[in-house]
Amino acid sequence: MKRGAKDAAAEILEEAVRSPRLAVTRIVARTSVNYQFLKVIAKNQLVQIENAGKRRKKLVITDKGRMFLQHYRVCNMLFPQEA
Known about the structure:
Blueprint: H1 5-18, H2 24-31, H3 35-43, E1 47-51, E2 57-61, H4 63-78
Antiparallel strand pairs: 1-2
Helix pairs in contact: 1-2, 1-4
């Protein structure tokens, strides 16, 4: 089953919360999303991409991103996926 944009965004946000010191490239690799999609959620102010060193970047989840993630979790509890 193909995952939608909301599912992919939530997966990125979950990974950013779970591993806040993880580099952006590692998060992209773990979640199997396109780097361009990461720019989309940054443009929508769900995350910020910050410099964490000379060439290293990290994701910082914003308040809007935390609110999205909270609502996403509630929706998944109310409407669980059927196997």
